[in-house]
Design a protein that fits this description.
Strand order of the largest sheet: 2-3-1-4
Number of domains: 1
CATH class: Alpha Beta
Number of strands: 4
Oligomer: single chain
Number of helices: 2
Strand content: 15-25%
Structural class: alpha+beta
Shape: globular
Length: 109
């Protein structure tokens, strides 16, 4: 049976018109991975983009989740992205913040 994973969702807080495919956010996924690894070298995480909820999904082992310092750093990166948006694309919705849940493999499979 595989190790349990910690699934953290990180809301983007804004939507870029016409950008719904994960490929459209590949540069942001890379920037998130680079920032986390620069702060604390690690190879045990996965970052992907969920276009339906406009959020990044970050998977880490349960015993080694993201630190508060790393989450703050990612929020700062997101704020930079928002400032770089044209005025007509700036967010109007509130931040949903972070959410975390533990994923385990179904032992019946």
């Amino acid at each position: 049976m595989g190790r349990p994973l910690c699934c953290e969702t990180f809301c983007l807080e804004f939507s870029e018109k016409g950008k719904t495919n994960p490929e459209d956010y590949a540069d942001k996924v890379t920037e998130i991975l680079d920032a986390i690894r620069q702060h604390c070298p690690r190879q045990d995480l996965t970052v992907s983009w969920n276009p339906f909820h406009e959020q990044f999904i970050i998977l880490t082992p349960v015993e080694h989740p993201l630190s508060m310092e790393q989450k703050t750093m990612l929020a700062d990166i997101r704020d930079t992205w928002k400032r770089e948006l044209p005025a007509d694309k700036r967010p109007s919705r509130k931040d949903h913040g972070w959410a975390r849940r533990v994923l385990t493999r179904d032992p019946t499979l």
